[in-house]
Specification:
There is one protein chain. By secondary structure, this protein is an alpha/beta fold. α1 packs antiparallel against α2 and α2 crosses α3. Helices cover about 35% and strands about 25% of the residues. The strands form three sheets. Strands 2-1-11-10-12 form a five-stranded mixed sheet. Strands 4-3-5-6-7 form a five-stranded parallel sheet. It has a two-stranded antiparallel ribbon with strand order 8-9. α3 links the parallel β3 and β4.
Length: about 250
């Protein structure tokens, strides 16, 4: 299990119907829960779109400018399944993936860019997008649920940061170390609190925790935005949280 796609496939085989990634907006009470099977289907569709629709290949770099959200977990899964690397934030890359809120900034780059809907059900965007920025929804939806291209490798570059880069195998090792640090055990539920104002300041821990950490521990992650202290306490009890990562 030295790559993300293999880890995701293993989770589907052993506990496909159990929650893997949950997103909660404590301000609006929005809640989206993805099982391992649902996330694997999303990863396959996104990976197929990256290879087929956007002409990327293993080794291509994707700039992902999305907030802590289930869509960020899904697009990371898709990128890593396709053997591509992820550069957090808005930067020149072979493809820029952003939200409608940041589409105008993405349009100033020379890189091709797509916008991703943050709707709870992933519905198409209703926002007007700048010229050259397309909604990724249709391109992803029309792809099959099964990944059609070559499998990713342990040595494929996975995460590109200012502080250095991680291959897929190194990413999983780092995720295991972070799980130990948080006290996350098999069957546990990790709460990840979003306190950053933009994705460019994200630390590596939150990029690991959105997908890789729960995979290496057969656990689940709950991504939370906007709670008050009182709401967070109640939410932690409701979501049966067993470990917490708070990063800003």
């Amino acid at each position: 299990m030295a790559d993300i796609w293999s880890a995701l496939e293993k989770r589907v085989r052993t506990a496909g119907g159990t929650p893997l990634v949950t997103y909660v907006d404590a301000t609006t009470s929005e809640r989206t829960e993805l099982s391992a099977t649902s996330l694997a289907n999303a990863a396959a569709k996104i990976a197929n779109a990256l290879r087929d629709e956007y002409d990327l290949e293993a080794g291509s770099r994707i700039s992902i400018d999305l907030p802590l959200h289930w869509q960020r977990s899904a697009w990371c899964a898709g990128a890593w399944t396709a053997g591509c690397s992820v550069r957090p934030g808005l930067d020149e890359a072979d493809l820029v993936v952003t939200s409608a809120a940041h589409a105008q900034r993405a349009a100033t780059l020379s890189s091709p860019a797509v916008a991703v809907s943050l709707h709870p059900f992933g519905l198409p965007l209703t926002d007007a997008l700048p010229v050259g920025i397309t909604d990724a929804t249709l391109a992803v939806r029309q792809q099959p649920d099964a990944y059609l291209f070559e499998r990713p490798q342990a040595g494929d570059l996975a995460l590109v940061l200012d502080s250095g880069s991680l291959t897929q195998a190194q990413l999983l090792d780092a995720a295991s170390a972070l799980a130990d640090q948080c006290g996350l055990v098999d069957g546990g539920r990790l709460l990840v609190l979003d306190t950053a104002s933009d994705t460019t300041s994200d630390d590596v821990d939150r990029w690991l925790a959105g997908l890789a950490v729960p995979l290496v521990r057969d656990a689940a992650v709950v991504l939370v935005t906007g709670p008050s202290v009182e709401a967070l306490t109640s939410l932690a009890a409701t979501e049966r949280i067993t470990a917490t990562l708070s990063a800003g």
